[in-house]
Write a structure and sequence with these properties.
The structure is a single chain. The chain is an alpha/beta fold and 239 residues long. It has two domains: 6-39 and 160-235, 3-Layer(aba) Sandwich (Rossmann fold), CATH 3.40.50.10090; 43-157, Rossmann fold (3-Layer(aba) Sandwich). Helices cover 34% and strands 25% of the residues. It is built from nine helices and eleven strands. The protein has helices spanning 23-29, 47-58, 70-74, 90-99, 112-119, 136-144, 176-188, 205-213, 227-235, and strands at 6-10, 32-36, 40-44, 62-67, 85-89, 106-108, 125-131, 148-159, 170-173, 200-202, 218-221. A six-stranded mixed beta sheet has the order 3-8-7-4-5-6. Helix 1 runs parallel beside helix 9, helix 5 (112-119) packs across helix 6 and helix 7 packs parallel to helix 8. It is elongated and about 60 Å long. The chain starts with 5 loop residues before the first strand and ends with a helix.
Amino acid sequence: MTLRPRRALSLRPPRPAGPGNLLGEHLAAAGWELVERPVLRLESSDPVVLRPAVAALAAGRYALLVVPDARSLDAAVWEVPADTRVLALGHTAAETAWEHGLTAAQRVPRSPAALAAAAGAPTGRALLPRGATSGAALARALRAAGWEVDKVTAYGPVELTPDLPADVDAVIVTAPSQVRRLADLLTTGAAPEPLRTIPLVAIDTATAEAARRAGLSVAAVSEDGAETSLAAAVRTVGA
């Protein structure tokens, strides 16, 4: 009898090819198969919505730019003055910042506490481009540290209803919004019931906490959000 490879179901939105999208290769090297079924599609905000923030950043209004994820940076052309600090949360956001020419961007762990610690004492205002359903905890952490924070919605989710397989060994989620969508699909019967108990691998603690609140089974959390770390977390499932 031929045994099938272990399978990991990824619910994250489609991503462009590049160094930040090698999860499938990392898993294949460990004998896993990656099955991609996005439950959300991300759409950038209208440029008109982003224009005031883009202009204010270029004019030097902000002492700090926070990059919570790659999509927030890809949503617009951000002209960052040399004296504006850039903090990128996690490996993928940092790599995207560097690819955009923000070579001085500092990578920090994907957590509100780590962001506040890296930001330090306030030296002006902070700009936080983020998804329509994310970024609240980051803004709270910065404000608690004394920063004035301007949030701008860089992108928003469009819900999808894919045909989700039940014969998988792990489910990968990379944002709380994906967890909420999976929970909705399970509640309406649009997702197979076994997915409720299949081990879930989260990209960070915020996503893991959202999964636990939804009653899902969290098996592992990525160390820093990098593709290698996410693959390593998947490989611990059932090990």
